[in-house]
Specification:
This protein is an alpha+beta fold. Helices cover about 25% and strands about 20% of the residues. It contains 19 helices and 25 strands. The strands form 6 sheets. Strands 8-12-6-19-16-17-18 form a 7-stranded mixed beta sheet. A 5-stranded mixed beta sheet has the order 2-1-5-3-4, with helices on both faces.
């Protein structure tokens, strides 16, 4: 052990730690300064940034043996408090920089150090500083952060009053459509909001830390699971396998369409008979510390009969491929599309035809915050699971039967959550937390490291696509033929819906009179597919927009003008035969055209023999809301102090807190309420109604 004296935020602190322990863990777990976040755990995201003796360092990869005695350490808590924000924090709030907020403490610390050394940085120097110090944000595109640094610098130089950063309510009292700060902004820039890992550190004594024993192959039959050695490891309270699960031990995929050949009960909570993908959970170790739990998980012995692993849709579709889920074909859903006349004769007589194959790969969401959660029994005996869920009522329905618990005895709560970009539309660790809490009767917490986060949460599903266009001599699209295969991994949840998206979005934006196509959802042994922003749309548009460029090249016409000729106008219908809600595309292209032409000229001027520059254009379309009739429920209570609003509008950076406040304030303007007189109660099934999931851009 090491004994060191550190001056943390100006206060002398004595620290005793392991030499190889990280400064981040000491700050968070030993000193309780949870404003410093751990994201990737490898020094690449900057969420853990602190100032050590005047220099910005990444504390998650700074071992305590490298920290000098009497070193000065400044964390986000030492820069400003909610009641006394530093100009950097004020400016971040004013410019809307904190969205999910998980990266904000690192950016605040890094910005403070930048301005300490360079009181008048340029925008380019600011961006370069963040790049050098590995400060990453996945939500806001960096512009609001750079804007904030520019204004904070003005305040520190005396060129702007701090009051200029404060929001002024307009004379009419209306905040709808303004830059009113989101309710959680101050907590996010000051590091005082508790995310899942922060709450996990603050559970009461006797709580258990969890670690998973996971499959290291992608497809296998399970012969046996031996937990004896793991059970004898230091600090271990219990090792849980499928035998300890009280319910069906399955997470239901909630089959969307009756033509789906699966039953939806294909995803185990803890694997019992088979391994379906790399990382599948085989056992849960419950121990007094995370370190003890992880060490014991490595001692769980699993005897497997390794099977062929089908790591792509074509491989799983091969004639000799075995069924991954016995009794359910690997191609378990098909979606056909037919619009207008038969396409074959149209293609045969078309002046121009183009066809090509396209593939959009599996994509990780790359959130800054890894997956995390905790569970306990509340004062009413309800199993209470906290997680990053963006659909607490949806996930309640998906996991309750598998846990074997009365739905009335299961309560889901969304933690303040770092961005998810859709992966948390699927339950991830919720059922694992529930099983462990039920099996031990103790509060439990589970935190994935970034490797687990990448390998054991859902990803954007790859599409294998074949597409063909037929057009007349003027470039007017006459027909489209499509074929697509969706590699949705081993679990069916929402896979049929994703395949439908291919029918909806290939060729979307264009008036195509005749369409024939078929798509299919394929079970594979690659990581399971989950929602990702614009579910199914990027895959579809990669194919149809790339093919539009190929058609323009074949015809020798400008790709923007070819699109202009074909976009929706009154009388057009979508690929599925619907009348569009708006006819905005021609006007949008008219507005874009001068900028596009200027960009072409700039690219041509700046191109050299060694470096070529060009300009690309693409349509992008996505629906808002769930398919079919949609609904959402909230409650509002008039109180002596104003109004309290209850809703399950899960926030993962998109601004549900501000959306709830802004909508309520606008709707209740006749009451003359100030925004601060509206209290929000969000995302706890014990008190908030089913407002629907925060997915599908709803």
């Amino acid at each position: 052990m090491l004994k060191k004296r550190l001056f943390v935020n100006g206060i002398a602190r004595t620290v005793i730690s392991e030499p190889e322990g990280s400064l981040a863990d000491v700050l968070r777990a030993q000193l309780g300064l949870t404003g410093t976040k751990i994201g990737c755990g490898q020094g690449q995201c900057g969420a853990c940034s602190v100032i050590l003796d005047g220099e910005v360092i990444r504390s998650c990869v700074t071992s305590m043996k490298r920290v000098p005695d009497d070193a000065s350490v400044t964390t986000v808590e030492g820069i400003g408090t909610p009641d006394d924000l530093h100009p950097v924090q004020q400016a971040m709030v004013a410019h809307g920089a904190p969205q999910c907020g998980y990266c904000m403490p690192g950016f605040v610390v890094s910005s403070k150090a930048l301005l300490d050394g360079n009181p008048n940085p340029t925008r380019g120097e600011t961006r370069a500083w963040f790049q050098t110090h590995r400060n990453a944000c996945r939500c806001n595109g960096y512009k609001p952060i750079v804007d904030a640094v520019m204004d904070a610098a003005k305040v520190l130089r005396g060129e702007m009053s701090p009051q200029a950063l404060e929001f002024e309510v307009p004379a009419d009292g209306r905040i709808w459509g303004t830059s009113y700060p989101r309710p959680t902004a101050v907590a996010k820039v000051s590091g005082t909001i508790d995310y899942g890992a922060d709450l996990g550190l603050k559970l009461p004594p006797g709580s258990l830390h969890l670690a998973l024993a996971q499959a290291e192959v992608s497809h296998a039959n399970i012969r046996s699971i031996d937990t004896a050695e793991a059970e004898g490891m230091p600090g271990v309270y219990k090792v849980i396998t499928h035998k300890d699960v009280q319910g069906k031990n399955r997470i239901t995929g909630l089959i969307t369409f009756p033509t789906n050949k699966g039953d939806g009960w294909d995803r185990p909570i803890l694997c019992d008979e088979k391994v379906f993908q790399y990382g599948d959970a085989l056992a849960i170790v419950c121990a007094d510390t995370e370190e003890h739990a992880r060490a014991a998980a490595a001692k769980v012995k699993v005897d497997l009969e390794v099977l062929p692993a089908y790591m792509s849709a074509p491989a799983a579709m091969a004639e000799d491929a075995i069924e991954i889920h016995p009794g359910t074909p690997n191609i378990y859903f098909e979606q056909k599309i037919a619009k207008g006349e038969d396409t074959a004769p149209i293609m045969a007589s078309a002046a121009y035809t183009v066809e090509d194959d396209f593939y959009l790969q599996r994509q990780p969401h790359l959130t800054i915050e890894p997956d995390v959660g905790l569970a306990y029994f509340d004062e009413e005996g309800r199993l209470t699971i906290h997680s990053k869920s963006i659909g607490i009522h949806l996930h309640h329905a998906m996991i309750a039967p598998g846990l074997g618990i009365d739905p009335d005895k299961l309560r889901l709560v969304q933690n303040p959550a770092g961005g998810t970009f859709g992966y948390k539309f699927s339950p991830t660790m919720e059922a694992l937390l529930g099983v462990a809490c039920m099996a031990t009767g103790r509060p439990v917490t589970l935190r994935y490291d970034y490797f687990q986060h990448i390998t054991y949460t859902g990803k954007r599903s790859p599409f294998f696509m074949q597409l063909k266009f037929g057009a007349d001599a003027e470039g007017k699209l006459l027909a489209m033929e499509s074929d697509w295969s969706v590699d949705h991994g081993p679990y069916s949840e929402f896979g049929d819906l994703l395949t439908l998206r291919g029918a909806q979005y290939m060729g979307a934006g264009y008036d195509i009179p005749a369409i024939r196509g078929v798509g299919r959802t394929v079970c594979t042994n690659h990581i399971w597919g989950s929602a990702f922003r614009s579910y199914g749309s990027p895959q579809a548009f990669l194919a149809s927009e790339s093919l539009m460029d190929e058609l323009a090249e074949k015809m020798g016409v400008d790709p923007l003008e070819l699109r202009y000729k074909n976009v929706y106008r009154p009388g057009a219908t979508t690929p599925t035969g619907q009348v569009p809600d708006a006819w905005s595309l021609p006007e949008m292209i008219d507005l874009l055209r001068p900028k596009y032409q200027a960009a072409l000229e700039k690219a041509q001027k700046e191109s050299t023999a060694e470096v070529k520059k060009g300009v690309g254009v693409s349509l992008g379309i996505y629906g808002c809301g769930l398919d079919g009739p949609d609904a959402s429920e909230v409650w509002v209570e008039l109180t002596e102090d104003g109004v309290t609003l209850g809703a399950s509008w899960e926030d993962h950076g998109q601004g549900a807190d501000m959306g709830a406040l802004g909508t309520a304030h606008e709707a209740l303007r006749p009451l003359g309420l100030a925004p601060e007189n509206i209290k929000l109660v969000l995302n706890d099934m014990a008190v908030t109604p089913n407002s629907g999931p925060s997915g599908g851009s709803r």
